[in-house]
Specification:
The chain is an alpha/beta fold. It has helices spanning 10-20, 47-56, 74-81, 92-106, 111-121, 149-155, 177-184, 196-204, 209-215, 236-242, 249-256, 273-278, 293-315; strands at 3-6, 28-31, 38-40, 43-45, 128-129, 137-142, 145-148, 164-168, 188-191, 219-223, 226-227, 230-231, 262-265, 282-285. Helices cover 41% and strands 16% of the residues. The strands form four sheets. It has a seven-stranded parallel beta sheet, sandwiched between helices. A three-stranded antiparallel beta sheet has the order 7-6-8. The chain binds guanosine-5'-diphosphate (GDP) and calcium ion (CA). The site of guanosine-5'-diphosphate (GDP) has 24 residues, from helix 1. This is 2-phospho-L-lactate transferase.
Length: 316
């Protein structure tokens, strides 16, 4: 059995941990998002991939959901003293990751290979694949003009209106053979409760990835990142709105219509189930807030078991 998890940062990492702690761990590979990558102080930072690695390696700051635990900020303080912009909070331990990544990158090592080496250092055994080894960067158009994703997200605290979103460089990006092969041979594809526009959208936008999912015989099940019609954290609501989609389960379904077989929604959104089912997809209604390890393991186990059951019934 082969399971694929499409994952962004914080929501994606919670789902990845749920699978890593479940009986499906050995069967799962993750496809992560590289479009939030950016350069700071001459270093290449890949926030969503590092969030996955730090979470699965139990090195994450659990309070924040990102960055390293037991972190210090001496280097950042020194950079500030040099008059550098330090709104991107990069801790000392975290900076070592970015130094190592940048060094390998300059030697011509692929982003996929660098990810593997970082994962190995943190004892992460669940493979993390990249949708592409090329540089793709999400940009957000706001009343202040086009911003990099991190400028919008971290520097501006998602406060600006979102007028438009682009994945810069995506047209020329090549999908990695490992991601395509993983999708083609998957029995179940789980879409994490990640931002559907920037995290999952940027993975799907790499030429060939969405087409491979549509063509695959895998059962595709998404977990909604909305609870009670609201995001748990982050700008998914603004981004759905700017994409002309409603901020509810229907809006999430609209992002994935061409390939989704089932959607997992929170109990507080159960009134959306009838409409979703009328569109021909299956719906699992269950608590989807992942606060504890138990929450994560239960939700992801339920999700994969539901997908396997539905797939069996469909085949019968
Ligand atoms: P980012 O890259 O760090 O912004 O993280 P993701 O794109 O992976 O996830 C962001 C989305 O995760 C937000 O829209 C949140 O609403 C959603 N999210 C975070 N935690 C949870 C959770 O425990 N349950 C659910 N259902 N959604 C969550
Ligand atoms: Ca992200």
């Amino acid at each position: 059995m082969k399971i694929t998890l499409l994952a962004g940062g914080v929501g994606g990492a919670k789902a990845a941990e749920g699978l890593a702690n479940s009986r499906f761990a050995e069967h799962t590979k993750i496809i992560g998002n590289v479009a939030d990558d950016d350069e700071f102080h001459g270093l290449w930072v890949s926030p969503d991939i590092d969030t996955l690695i730090y979470s699965l390696g139990d090195q994450i700051d659990r309070q924040q959901g990102w960055g390293r635990k037991n972190e210090s900020y001496q280097v950042l303080g020194e950079l500030r003293a040099f008059g550098q912009e330090t709104w991107m909070t990069l801790g000392d331990l975290d900076l070592a990751t970015h130094i190592f990544r940048t060094h390998l990158r300059r030697l011509g090592v692929s982003a996929s290979e660098i990810t593997q080496r970082l994962a190995m250092r943190h004892g992460v055994s669940m493979p993390i694949l990249l949708p592409t080894d090329d540089v793709v960067q999400t940009r957000v158009n706001t009343p202040k003009g086009w911003l990099s994703f991190q400028e919008f997200f971290v520097r501006e605290h998602c406060q600006l209106d979102v007028l438009d979103i682009e994945y810069h460089g995506v047209e020329k990006a090549t999908p990695t053979p490992s991601a395509l092969e993983q999708i083609v041979h998957s029995d179940v594809i789980v879409i994490a409760p990640s931002n559907p526009i920037v995290s999952i959208g940027a993975i799907l936008a790499v030429p060939g990835i969405q087409q491979a999912i549509e063509a695959s015989s895998a059962y595709v099940i998404g977990i909604s990142p909305l609870i009670g019609g609201k995001t748990v954290k982050g700008p998914a609501d603004k981004m759905l709105e700017s994409a002309g989609k409603s901020i509810d389960s229907k809006g999430i379904y609209d992002c994935y219509t061409s390939f989704i077989d089932a959607l997992v929604i929170d109990e507080s959104d159960k009134h959306d189930a009838a409409w979703l089912e009328s569109q021909g997809i299956k719906v699992l209604v269950t608590p989807t807030l992942m606060a504890t390890t138990e929450d994560k393991t239960r939700l992801l186990t339920e999700t994969v078991e539901f997908a396997l059951l539905q797939q069996k019934q469909r085949a019968a």
